[in-house]
Amino acid sequence: MIPMEHFSYEYIILAWALVTAAAISLFMVDDLFVDLCALLFNLKAKPITSTLRQKIEKAPEKRIAVLVANWREHEVLSRMISGNIRSINYHNYSFFIGVYPNDPLTWEAASQLEKQFSNVHVIVNPIIGPTTKGQMLNEMMQKINSLSTIPYEIFVMHDSEDLIHSYSFKLFNYFSDQFSFMQVPVFSLPTPWNHWTAGVYADEFAESHLKEMLVRDFLGGGVPSAGVGTAMTRQLIQVISNVQDGQFLRSDCLTEDYVLGLTAHQLKFKASFLNYYLEENNQRDYIATREYFPDEFHSSVRQKTRWATGIAFQGQAVLKWQGTLAAKYFLWRDRRSFLNAILVTSSIFLIPLFILGLRSPYFDILSHSDAFIYLGAINLASMMWRLFQRGRFMYSIYGIKLLPGIPIRWIVGNLINTAAAFKAFQNFRHHVKSGEQMKWVKTTHRIPENFGTEFPIQHNQTQPRQKNYNQEAIS
User: Fold this and answer.
1) Rounded to the nearest 5 degrees, what angle is found at the Cα of 417, between the Cα atoms of 423 and 186?
2) Total domains present in the chain
């Protein structure tokens, strides 16, 4: 006869397994809802037709200010600015480079660029760095508004590793008559197939910015800023600054860009996720910002810890649960990362127990549970669907070469996101208890060595000159 404690132990395991499997199934249904919305409403990237292109080209160019905040970016800043100036298909714009007084190498690089290009200006933060990116950008915005005799009409945020699409400013300029807040997609520059960590970003951004963001925009869930490729009108900046005591960004939040987009939504400003592409030689050239993301596991965890802290924890404290039902739904999706981490961790322990139960009577309650097996089958089928969905969007951007590695990158991505979610929870809890100000966590940036050297400096180009990086560096 089996002792009662053995029964207790087994049924605790079964209850744990059923709760985990059921929760995963609910999360899968959540994801499936977004898939079905995209399919039913035919939400996808739009082509720049010849008619639309004529309208975009004829639109008078508004004055654009491009804000680039920096902390120890001297290794990439010069190539980023000079490369983009060589390729941007727009005339009426200026770069504003924010630097700290205790970052002399970046300050020197920025000063050299200011001497070289008439549309590059350096702004020195009066506070010793690093502070937060929000504080730096707020300081830059105040200086721009105080020093500019002719006001800028559109403000664009970018980072020092960004490859700005040559046509994106044209797009912002045209659609700024309809929208006060605009975001173009952000895609990872392709990396070799066996760079699993960097490949995770390619997977995630492809699916998010070719599907999730379109559904979110369509349903009225608000368009969060990605921090780069974000454009705002002067009116929006003024209203948000008035609401937030003169700051258009929350300097106390690690994801000030995310909060910015949803604050604009709460203030009833019109926003749009501008997902368009140019078609040339039967290839889609998405009008998107491209960049390299971290290629090392610990660097990725550090970056995603900042994202999770700002979005899931600080975002909840700042944005609450305000807005329409659609807005609240997507806030839930943004904030479920910690619950995802718990479920992934739980699954990591349960899967070996299930396999062990196939060979040992001490854990066979899982293999003998019809409910657990049915839920497991549903979750397995759902995971296959998720991998198919991810592959569909990856193929659209990078072609076939990166598709075989998707299952491996799925596992790596879950491990990174789980570690980041737990660390974010720990960091936020420490922040609440101690009251310490969270600081800018720098990610090491890189940029293609030959970026911008393909073209001579020319300010009067009439056709997009952005090099197509989609298929490079995959082999």
Assistant:
1) 120
2) 2
